[in-house]
């Protein structure tokens, strides 16, 4: 039989995460891609620059991570930055441009966009992106960028990426989606119409709470041109060692997040209907207002959830004081389970009015569910909730189930 060899099938994302770049070392055949810490690279001669010259501009370890993330997100290329905030800042526009951002985006994003707008570096408007009329009105002002973050932090609201991207494009705006909460294992915004995907790689992609980093992934080859020059000029590229560690984390992304979201679902069900709990926010619950949208748009419901305790800050103190497995800390997406109190931690800089509008109450707690045994995590929550009930002020009503 004659003819060319069949084209190898595209690799499954699990294979890309586990094996992209494995066994490609030409020098010694190292199986794990080597770490290149060098800040500078030798020229081959005068006017003969090699593939790399200076690590602020480009570095092989950073490029290996960029290539892997671009493949996982279905994009054409990626830039690796020193933090998630640096990645968001790269989406910066010109002075005449308008950015439309979610009213309930990550507080650091809100603060950064508002601060740059206050310095007249661009204009920003924050809208409830689940409100079709508010989005339509904002798009009438011809923004250059629509920034989406779904699910939102900390209330796990979900918005329709495909529909928003279609409307934004009709209005001439580029679309960037912060995919930090789900990772490409559970959501691929480029397939839904996004031009850019942004990550805090600090979270699920690295997954071990030992690196702060970020990434911007572009849907099409020209998408990174301006950003890349800007990144080199401002020096916001991630450190090679951080890229190496993050790629090591990416290797286990799929099994980690699959197991973590399975446990998160069990914890959400446990919390629903508990007498100490007022509300549970988890898109995997059929009662969640965007359950159907999340089921359609995501490949899973994720491992983040939040819930509201009855009894406000006092109840939060009693709950957290009884925990032995969850750690009270900011951040998310690591192998260890964390609990955060948005009002006094991640969202403390917001005005009380803005917090009230965003639905962040004193009793709200956010969980990042890790890889510990489900039984230990359930027992920990149970102990916390018992403590809340035991510390209830005398005469407080016990809600009827
Ligand atoms: N985007 C989201 C959704 C986040 O939760 C965070 C941090 O918590 C960031 C961006 C910022 O990332 P970093 O802390 O890596 O700068």
Architecture overview:
This protein is of the alpha/beta class. It folds into two domains: 13-250, Type I PLP-dependent aspartate aminotransferase-like (Major domain) (Aspartate Aminotransferase, domain 2); 253-390, Aspartate Aminotransferase, domain 1, CATH 3.90.1150. It has helices spanning 13-19, 60-73, 84-90, 107-118, 132-139, 161-170, 225-234, 240-250, 253-271, 291-297, 312-321, 352-358, 374-390; strands at 77-81, 98-102, 123-127, 145-149, 174-178, 196-200, 214-218, 277-281, 304-309, 327-328, 338-340, 364-368. The chain has a seven-stranded mixed sheet, sandwiched between helices. A five-stranded mixed sheet has the order 8-9-12-11-10. α9 runs parallel beside α13 (374-390) and α11 crosses α13. The longest helix has 19 residues, at 253-271. The chain is globular. The structure holds pyridoxal-5'-phosphate.
Q: In percent terms, what proportion of residues is strand?
A: 5-15%
Q: Helix/strand/pairing class, anyone? A: alpha/beta
Number of domains: 2
Mean pLDDT figure: 94
Strand count:
12
- Percentage of helical residues? 25-40%
Q: List ligands, each type once.
A: pyridoxal-5'-phosphate
């Amino acid at each position: 039989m004659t003819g060319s060899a069949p084209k190898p099938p595209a690799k499954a994302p699990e294979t890309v995460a586990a094996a992209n770049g494995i066994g490609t070392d030409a020098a010694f055949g190292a199986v794990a891609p080597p770490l290149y810490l060098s800040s500078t690279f030798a020229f081959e001669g005068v006017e003969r620059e090699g593939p790399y010259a200076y690590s602020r501009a480009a570095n092989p370890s950073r490029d290996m991570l960029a290539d892997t993330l671009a493949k996982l997100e279905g994009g054409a290329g990626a830039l690796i930055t020193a933090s998630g905030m640096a990645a968001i800042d790269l989406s910066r526009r010109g002075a005449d441009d308008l950015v439309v951002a979610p009213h309930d985006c990550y507080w650091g994003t809100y603060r950064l966009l508002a601060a740059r707008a206050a310095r007249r570096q661009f204009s920003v408007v924050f809208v409830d992106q689940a409100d079709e009329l508010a989005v339509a009105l904002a798009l009438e002002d011809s923004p250059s960028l629509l920034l989406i973050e779904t699910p939102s932090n900390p209330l796990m609201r979900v918005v329709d990426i495909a529909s928003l991207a279609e409307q934004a494009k009709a209005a001439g705006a580029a679309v960037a989606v912060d995919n930090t909460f789900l990772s490409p294992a559970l959501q691929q915004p480029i397939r839904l119409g996004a031009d850019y995907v942004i990550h805090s790689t600090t979270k699920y992609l690295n997954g071990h709470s030992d690196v702060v980093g970020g990434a911007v992934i572009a849907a099409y080859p020209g998408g990174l041109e301006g950003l890349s020059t800007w990144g080199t000029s401002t020096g916001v590229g991630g450190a090679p060692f951080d890229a190496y560690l993050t790629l090591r984390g990416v290797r286990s992304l799929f099994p980690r997040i699959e197991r973590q979201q399975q446990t998160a679902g069990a914890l959400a069900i446990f919390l629903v209907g508990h007498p100490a709990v007022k509300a549970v926010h988890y898109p995997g619950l059929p009662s969640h207002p965007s359950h159907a949208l999340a089921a359609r748009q995501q490949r899973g419901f994720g491992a983040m959830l939040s819930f509201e305790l009855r009894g406000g800050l006092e109840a939060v103190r009693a709950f957290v004081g009884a925990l032995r497995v969850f750690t009270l800390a900011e951040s998310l997406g690591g192998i260890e389970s964390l609990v955060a109190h948005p009002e006094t931690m991640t969202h403390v800089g917001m005005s009380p009015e803005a917090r009230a509008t965003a639905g962040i109450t004193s009793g709200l707690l956010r969980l990042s569910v890790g890889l510990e045994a489900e039984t230990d995590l359930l027992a920990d929550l149970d102990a916390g909730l018992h403590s809340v009930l035991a510390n209830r002020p005398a005469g407080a009503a016990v809600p009827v189930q």
